[in-house]
Write a structure and sequence with these properties.
single chain; 138 residues; alpha+beta
Length: 138
């Protein structure tokens, strides 16, 4: 009798697990759509040599080179596809299988880079510490 009861419970458990929403367990592949309207002037503002802001929170970032080619930003060795520009922010993403996002916001002569990555649905996280940079005066 106990064996039959355990077998029935096991079958019910397996059935419930197989019917669960598998989408929540899958990796979020949130690729952003690429807009046809990109603010070229804003993109040109981020192109150049940048260093860690010594007055900011993270002065030891070192030096970064940002270049632009064919609607992509090259942030040192990372190729980032520009997806849109809104309210002074350039939204970008990597083209890799695991998508990383780098959003660039220029205020005066300071550049703040907001790196993040997608997480599984229902999970929190993904936002990394922003990098505060200033134009390299050299």
């Amino acid at each position: 009798m106990k064996v039959k009861m355990l077998t029935v419970l096991l079958i019910i458990s397996l059935f419930l697990i197989s019917c669960s929403n598998k989408n929540e367990l899958e990796e979020a592949a949130d690729k952003r759509n690429v807009s046809s309207e990109i603010d070229a002037k804003l993109v040109k503002n981020v192109v150049g040599e940048w260093v860690g802001d010594t007055a900011g929170n993270y002065p030891t970032y070192g030096k970064f080179t940002i270049t632009e080619k064919n609607q992509s930003l090259f942030f040192d060795d990372k190729k980032l596809r520009i997806t849109k520009t809104i309210d002074g922010i350039i939204f970008t993403q990597t083209e890799e299988e695991k998508t990383f996002y780098y959003d660039f916001k220029v205020i005066d002569k300071k550049l703040t880079v907001y790196p993040s990555y997608s997480t599984r649905k229902g999970f929190t996280g993904g936002d990394l510490a922003p990098m505060e940079l200033i134009k390299d005066g050299k």
